[in-house]
Amino acid sequence: MATTATTTTIRPRTLVRASGGPRYAAALVVDAIGTGMLRPFLLLYGVTVLKLSAPATGAAMTAGIVVGLVCMPAVGRWLDRGARSNVVAAAMLIRVLGVALLLATPAGHIRLFATAALLLGIGGQAWPAAHAAVVATVAHGRERDIALSAGRALRNAGMGTGALIATACLTGGTTALQVLAAVTGLAYLTAATLAWSVHLRAHPADAPAKETTKGPAPRMGALLAANVIYAFCLNVPEIALPLILVTHLHASPVWSAAIFVANTVLVVTLQVPVTVLMSRFSRRAVLALAGVVLTASYLGFLAATSLGHGWGAPAVATVSVICTIGEILYAGSATALVTALAPDRLLGRALARFQLSTGFGLAVSPAAITSLAPHGAAALWGSLAAATLVSSAAVGLRPTAAAAPPVRWPLPEADCPVPYRDHRS
Questions:
Q1: Cβ contact 51:107 at 8 Å
Q2: Is the distance from CB of 92 to CB of 26 less than 8 angstroms?
Q3: Residue 329, CB-side half-sphere exposure with 13 Å CA sphere
Q4: First vs last C-alpha separation in the chain
Q5: Which of 77, 149, 243, 298 has a CA between 20 and 30 Å from the CA of residue 25?
Q6: What's the predicted TM-score (pTM) here?
Q7: Chain centre to alpha carbon of residue 349
Q8: Do you find a cis peptide bond into 237, omega within 30 degrees of 0?
Q9: Positive/negative CA dihedral, 8, 340, 295, 326
Q10: For residue 18, what pLDDT band results from cuts at 50, 70 and 90?
Q11: What are the residues whose beta carbons fall under 8 Å from the beta carbon of 16, sequence distance 6 or more?
Q12: Predicted confidence band at 1 (pLDDT cuts at 50, 70, 90)?
């Protein structure tokens, strides 16, 4: 382990530059606010504005997310041809089309709603890989890891702000939902324009010589399989905990809302500092540790639910902090590990494969959680704990290179070089 001290004094201006620049950061903020205004209420839009049944609306939304994954191989190939900010802009623009179609859909037309959900799903699935490719191009080494974490924190803050705005506007009924959808479309359009204006491309000639040689891509089967299970943690605060609190512990819905808000606040405030702190260890070791922490939190939820009504809800809320720490460790190391393992010429396809595994995990986790929950807390949390622990072992037992030197913050004021990348995993 390196002994160099890690400082956590972070210059926002330097971090913005390492994340893609001011205009790109502004695009992320605007896009996140727009997403926060619509995504949590898309089901409500289908039911109240379009008069669709809840099962049909939910099925259309799920299908849009799943089918949206089909676009990922094409996104990966586009990125590998050098495209960067244009892919991000395209992911935002296709959601503009989705919102426009949503606004044009007459009441009762499930097919048009499903098409709108598909366009929104394609944009939502393509964005993470495209954004990671942008950051991997403008930042290098551990600075890239911090920039990825900063982007996640920024996005969570924007989505939280958008959700608060939407919640405040919901008293206006169906008209308010339509206005929110229109504002979301304008936000996506503004964000796409800002992202496109960056004009960032990767040039293979600038890559190190060892990167341009032909050869097989690194094997990531175990990592991708483990990531499917890891991704379940992202739906625990939104699906598993409210389900357990309401149906098993008969607690007030206020507990679920408080846990969700706390999760968002912790991610926004701790994602970057924790990633900086863990930069003294290899990315693979941190990802394996994330699995151990998540496993411990799942076992903690199992113990908390056994306390029953009264102490159960406060105990679940306390354990949820541990689960959020595991989520932060996972988010700060998983994508960074993929970008470190993949050669420049295959970065896009590697990120696309990673997003496929993440998207698949997010798609199947609601069904898995709601299927296990009726069989009791032991079935739910025991299964999640066992699967996550196995995934952590699969990640941690792979051979890994020596840990990179820890990040020394603040970053130097010089512009980030393009496109050197540290391949220590």
A1: yes
A2: no
A3: 24
A4: 14
A5: 77
A6: 0.86
A7: 18
A8: no
A9: positive
A10: low
A11: 22, 25
A12: very low
Please state, rounded to an integer, the average pLDDT across all residues of the chain.
85
Task: Give mean pLDDT, residues 69-94.
Answer: 93
pLDDT of 408 higher than 80: no
Kindly report the backbone phi and psi dihedral angles of residue 83, in degrees, each rounded to the nearest multiple of 5, phi listed first: -65, 145
Query: Alpha-carbon distance 75 to 57, whole Å?
Result: 27
Asked if the model's pLDDT at residue 205 lies above 60, the reply is no
For residue 218, the model assigns a pLDDT of: 66
pLDDT tens per residue, range 47-58: 889 998 888 888
Q: Which residues contact 241 (CB under 8 A, 6 or more apart)?
A: 256, 259, 301, 316, 320
Angle among Cα 265, 268, 271 to the nearest 5 degrees reads: 125
Query: Nearest 5°: CA angle at 297, between 291 and 301?
Result: 145
Residue 10: predicted pLDDT: 56
Which residues, including other chains, have CB under 8 Å from residue 424's CB and lie 6 or more apart?
282, 283, 340, 401, 402, 403, 404
Q: State how far the Cα of 123 lies from the Cα of 67, in Å rounded to an integer.
A: 11
Which pair of tokens denotes residue 107? 């009441």
Structure tokens at 245: 């609190």
Looking only at Cα atoms, what is the longest distance across the chain?
64
Residue 309 three-state SS: coil
| Sequence-distant (≥ 6) Cβ neighbours of residue 209 within 8 angstroms | none
Task: Please state whether the peptide bond connecting residue 412 to the residue before it is cis, i.e. omega within 30 degrees of 0.
Answer: no
Helix (H, G, I), strand (E, B) or coil at 83: strand
What is the rounded distance in angstroms from the CA atom of residue 183 to the CA atom of residue 31? Answer: 11
**Pick from 173, 170, 387, 177: which is nearest to 294 by CA?**
387
Range list of H helices, 373-412: 377-396
Whether the CB-CB separation of 30 and 191 falls below 8 Å is answered with yes
CB distance 57 to 105 below 8 Å = no
Distance CA 398, CA 26 (A): 38
For tokens 């049944």, what's the residue? Answer: 53
Task: Report the candidate in 385, 394, 361 with the shortest Cα–Cα distance to residue 232.
Answer: 361
